[in-house]
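Q: Got a minute? One more chain.
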Amino acid sequence: HTPNENTMVVLAGAICTREGKALLSRQFVPITRVRIEGLLAAFPKLMGSDPRQHTYIETDSVRYLYQPLDSLYMLIITNKSSNILEDLDTLQILAKLIPEYCRILDEDEVLKNAFTLVFAFDEVIAGGYREKVTVQQIKTFMEMDSQQEKLAHMLETTKLMKARQEADARAQEISAERLHRTAMSSAVGYGGGGPTQSPSFGYGFGSGSGSGAMSGVARTPTITPSVTDSHPSFRPVQSYQATSAKPARRGMVLGGQTDGRESEFLQAMAKDGDNIQLESTSSTHGSAQPVVTAVPTSDVTILIEETLSVSLDQDGSLLDMVVKGSLTVTINNPECGRALVRLSNDATEGFRFIANPNVDRMAFRKDSLIKLKDTSRAFPTGGPLGVLKWKMESKEDSSVPIIVTCWPSAVSSAGQNLLVTTLEYELLHDHLTLNDLCIQVPIPSGTAPVVDRLDGDYQYEPAASILNWIIATVDSSSTSGSIEFRIPFDGPPTALFPIHVSFHSNSTICPVSVASVEHVDNPENSIDFEEIRSLGVEEYTIS
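A: Always. Here it is, folded:
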């Protein structure tokens, strides 16, 4: 049925000046231009000398309802059979929309934002009939008009930032390699014996041909300090050089050739252990000096990493879980290349381990030792080497570190259908500390969630229609939490799925750890080492 002037509908909404000049008019039923211009022209002549707030004027065929807004009038025209109470509500919400999009209530501002106001009026009245919407919902609908454009801009910005970061990192690597090469040439030219090249095997560490001793230095990485509090033992020292002298292990090693009392004074302070840094300067011959880089202070760095993949159903029952882990050894001091790693492994039968082919697997199975088959060889220096991997698969609910459940329910309030949802999490492995827990819930488009109660914090992204529930830390002191929100929605609760979960931790699920690092020839002489752990989420979905 197509509405016309004879049905109970709003014929038009308009904004005009006090003098009766029409600035904007939106017709909601089929009506000729001559007809609407005649109605608007008649309005100022019908106005009384004492206008009141929320007043109306009736003629033989139509009713005018208007509200003063400074120097303007918000006006709607209806037929006389229309419900005046509903029309007054419609007038009020239209009047509230004008200040939302016009900073100043004057003629120029209305003309400037005419199309935006027309679109907003269309959200309130469709086909002459009032829609059950609020001002906040209309603002949300208007913001979502350019959702795809905003997503495209976000993706483009992310790609540009990533490309810029990769270009900067590559430029730093090239500069560091060039400076290392120059430094090595100087060392060899002055009679330095050149570095001792570690035997090459597996995983791309050394090729055993071509570049000879130079390849050992070219592959020395620059390790930057971590920004997390869990890895505070990084400090700036000079990279290992290809000389027979043992590298300095404390404070700063000052590179470059400088003259004068200032340089001598700073060098004296450096010998006393003060952290002093000199900018690299070119010598009179233009040769580059070694750069000051950041490396770990320990002789050996051992990195234990795990990734977690979990699939749950709506009530929190586990469908599938996979844990993948690896242990990586990095030799920072060339004198400690012939080392063995003694592990403490309390893993259950659910974990399957596999060692690097160059590692003595029998020693690992019997004594939990990580050492090379050929003990005369040394681990590569300066680069990470994966020596151990493991995997665990489970369908037992108790094996999941954290359970997330969702409880949606449909209710009706004040004639409006609502979907009230409660989300909760529970930490099952209280030896873990989870950081930056984020639970992402998709929200049906065209709605905005209202959060009634929560633990932690939340963020709603209208462009992506996602509600992010964020908890900074989950540990044994706060093993559970919940959030309750509601949305105006009469569809199925499955619209809130799938829910995605992400977090990271400095602990791991597999209880493998490093007991000690020792010299192969002299096990009683332990080697200084640093153990770093990390747990991340590859995929965690509730469907």
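A: The two ends are 41 Å apart (CA to CA).
Q: Perfect, thanks.
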